[in-house]
Amino acid sequence: MLETAICKMLGIKYPIIQGGMAWVSEHNLTAAVSNAGGLGIIAAGNLPGEDLVHEIRETYKLTDKPFGVNIVPIAGVKFTDHLKIIADEGVRIVSLAFSDPKMSVISELHKHRITVICVVPSVRLARRVENEGADIIVAMGTEAGGHVGKIATLPLVPQIVDAVSVPVVAAGGIGDGRGLLAALCLGASGIQMGTRFMVSKESIMHSDTKARILEATEEDTIVTGMVTGSPMRSLSNEFTRHWQTREKEQGQRAKEELQREGLGRGYRVIIEGDMEQGTLPMGQGCGLVREEKSVRDIIDDIISEAETMYKRIGTMKT
Ligand SMILES: Cc1cc2nc3c(=O)[nH]c(=O)nc-3n(C[C@H](O)[C@H](O)[C@H](O)COP(=O)(O)O)c2cc1C
After folding, report:
1. Confidence class of residue 227 from pLDDT cuts 50, 70 and 90?
2. The pTM is what?
3. Residues lining ligand 1, judged by CB closer than 6 Å?
């Protein structure tokens, strides 16, 4: 049941992808996920070229399993440099961040025989990236941590499954075996998770920040950034509430100032542990994260819970 189309395409044992996470998914987390049978992904969006080379080479040292690199295909964001590095370093899988490429990134990657995973928030964008050649589409609902759209995972996934013919992966709010099984029932070929992997033993996140996530409830996230055109779901704290109030009061007039104020806030909370002034992307599934486990335990527990739930549903009387 758990060996799906993406397992074969990506060369992985379990249909579980760790989404690229700026500052969080570096070589240790990426390799741990790949070694545990999922697909680990290095986040490149925040990295200068030489750091990306370093991350890729360190990952090769830690695993001989497939892994990917996540890039942010917005013109001007170190993106063409990243493409060259990925090709030169022999990376076989790339995921394109939740953004509209606006140029022919996919065909460029295909020239190097790289498998391309595209993360999308809508059926419209799913159709478009499929036409451009996406090999796998991640349907990411608004429950997710990071940049989000408006549609929730439950309605989004089956509508994208119906609209495209490539395999679809569900993301947004998934943190356990129930979520994996639900995603498969919606027609997805697997899941992508971010929030759950942030609190793992291999994650380099600051211990105070991990502790804050372990306490978080489903009501502790906030969406900001409407005025910038890239809404983001993150931990509700002093800074993100301030940002939301400014947006409500000043709308577009606050855009440039808020963009400036927002710089460097991810690093501040993820690496330095500044819980009130940093911006921590975090999904509504944070309430499912109650224990810091190793990546292998996270993945094994998800698989065994999904299998148990599947058997239980089969014997249920409705
Ligand atoms: C801390 C953090 C950073 C993220 N950074 C990126 C990124 O750089 N690129 C990207 O495509 N997605 C990014 N995401 C989204 C994840 O890859 C993933 O799709 C998402 O977390 C899935 O939803 P979940 O958080 O509910 O599991 C980020 C998410 C988090 C939590």
Report:
1. confident
2. 0.97
3. 19-22, 24, 43, 45, 70, 97-98, 119, 140, 143-146, 171-174, 192-196, 198, 281-283, 285
Contact (Cβ atoms closer than 8 angstroms) between residue 269 and residue 275: yes
Q: Report the pLDDT value the prediction gives residue 79, as an integer from 0 to 100.
A: 76
Report the pLDDT averaged over residues 153-179. Answer: 98
What is the whole-number distance in angstroms between the Cα of residue 98 and the centre of ligand 1?
9
- Specify the pLDDT at position 317: 64
Ligand 1, atom 4, lies closest to the CA of 21
1, 230, 253 from 146: Cα distances, Å: 30, 10, 23
Q: Is the pLDDT of residue 1 over 80?
A: no
Specify the pLDDT at position 185.
96
Distance from the CA of 290 to the center of ligand 1, in angstroms?
Answer: 19
Q: Residue 99: its pLDDT value, please?
A: 66
Domain spanning 5-203+291-311, CATH architecture: Alpha-Beta Barrel (3.20)
Mean pLDDT of the chain: 94
- Choice from 21, 178, 240, 288 to test ligand 1 binding pocket (greatest atom count within 8 A of CB): 21
Residue closest by Cα to atom 20 of ligand 1: 194
> Counting every residue, how long is the chain?
318
**CA-closest residue to ligand 1 atom 3:** 21
Give whole-number Cα distances, 145 to 114, 236, 244, in Å. Answer: 26, 12, 17
Kindly report, as residue ranges, where domains of CATH 3.20.20.70 are found in the chain. Answer: 5-203+291-311
